[in-house]
């Protein structure tokens, strides 16, 4: 049911309040949710919970919804992306009333008397409106996956048939379904969720990893970076799941996996140039895209631009060299922040320092090219700004961000 004009006015007017108190609201929301429904803890990334990243992202999402309540079309891309994430985690319609109950209660706890009955009713209607949109979108995704050959809904057990160290930090896992049945097709750039039990949390924890190979039906490959504790001046929680995968998941081991989802995907219907721009482990979906482009076409031009800290953490380096040597339509440029004593310019890397698109504009600017970008948040913001400064239209810039956050 659509909101009344008065309800729309109330939601819109509450945006400044949520901008000021949103983080408190969502912190209380998560506390209430987990106290009353501890079974839902398995759906959430508790590393992001402890760092505060998930709370900050949800607070911004609630504020954005309130700010755009009279122009929901502006939220279309965000709704599409969130529904893809939800489908990979198995979010169900019955979860939405639970979330709504505790979100409204958290608003009341935070805002006190300012959260009047009229405001509560308006937010209840607004939340239901959004929930209906999300439920419908996720229902469509589930139906699509269930109808595909080899598709499934929820979790499916897979076996590791091969494990390969791609660098000092990144390891690839080749996964095949234990039931011996078909794998579904997927779009290059999509991800799967992987679920692993974390003993010190007493929880199963899901993590999402981009698929890092072409959709050939032989296996699903994920390439996982081992996340460390970080430097002492920039502490961060160690990557519990990534470390468990590196240390405990070996050939012959099993893991539960979702079907592929995600809207950051290569358009395979085009034959115009593609520029892939990645930072660190953000190269994994780009590897899938590049492998697919050379599999699909001998003529479609693709430029692979990558930035990493140093040679020892440069994953897929030899594979990329072979691709470029074997395919005249493919080129690459690599930036290293740290140059080692044995690193050779032109062999291991092309430029020192941070990736600078203005410096390599001849490898960036192509007529009708599409630009696919993935990496850490500061990297992403810098590259999007650089492409726009070079005159690239925003409609041709496609982004995926690892972790919580957005490119606002």
Automatic annotation (TrEMBL):
Binds 1 FAD per subunit. Its cofactor is FAD; heme b. Heme b binds at residue 86. Residues 153-267 form the FAD-binding FR-type domain. Residues 2-139 form the Globin domain. GO terms for biological process: cellular response to nitrosative stress; nitric oxide catabolic process; response to toxic substance. Gene3D superfamilies: Globins (1.10.490.10), Nucleotide-binding domain of ferredoxin-NADP reductase (FNR) module (3.40.50.80), Translation factors (2.40.30.10). It catalyses: 2 nitric oxide + NADPH + 2 O2 = 2 nitrate + NADP(+) + H(+); 2 nitric oxide + NADH + 2 O2 = 2 nitrate + NAD(+) + H(+). Keywords: Detoxification, FAD, Flavoprotein, Heme, Iron, Metal-binding, NAD, NADP, Oxidoreductase, Oxygen transport, Transport. NADP(+) binds at residues 280-285. Residues 150-408 are annotated as: Reductase. The active site is at residues 96, 138. Its EC number is 1.14.12.17. FAD binds at residues 207-210. CDD domains: FHb-globin, flavohem_like_fad_nad_binding. The record marks 30 as: Involved in heme-bound ligand stabilization and O-O bond activation. It comes from the Bacteria. Is involved in NO detoxification in an aerobic process, termed nitric oxide dioxygenase (NOD) reaction that utilizes O(2) and NAD(P)H to convert NO to nitrate, which protects the bacterium from various noxious nitrogen compounds. Therefore, plays a central role in the inducible response to nitrosative stress. Consists of two distinct domains; an N-terminal heme-containing oxygen-binding domain and a C-terminal reductase domain with binding sites for FAD and NAD(P)H. In the C-terminal section; belongs to the flavoprotein pyridine nucleotide cytochrome reductase family. Belongs to the globin family. Two-domain flavohemoproteins subfamily. This is Flavohemoprotein.
